[in-house]
Design brief:
This protein is an all-alpha fold. The chain has three helices and no strands. The termini are far apart.
Amino acid sequence: MNGLNWEALSAWLAMGGYGLYVWGSLGMCALVFAGEVLSLRAHRRALAQEDAVAAGAAAQAPARRPVLTQQERGT
């Protein structure tokens, strides 16, 4: 086994002079993807928290009694 040919690796990373564009584009795509995942997670947490608050408020609110008219009361 010869080991790694560093000259070939650097040539591959340079990509014929377009390496900065290629690797920069891949880096930006990775950042946008990571940002999207983090944004979705934050949105999901916020929705779950809103649901928990709404469920807690509904559980704490007293049950409303129906208001009966005089005819329904029979008086």
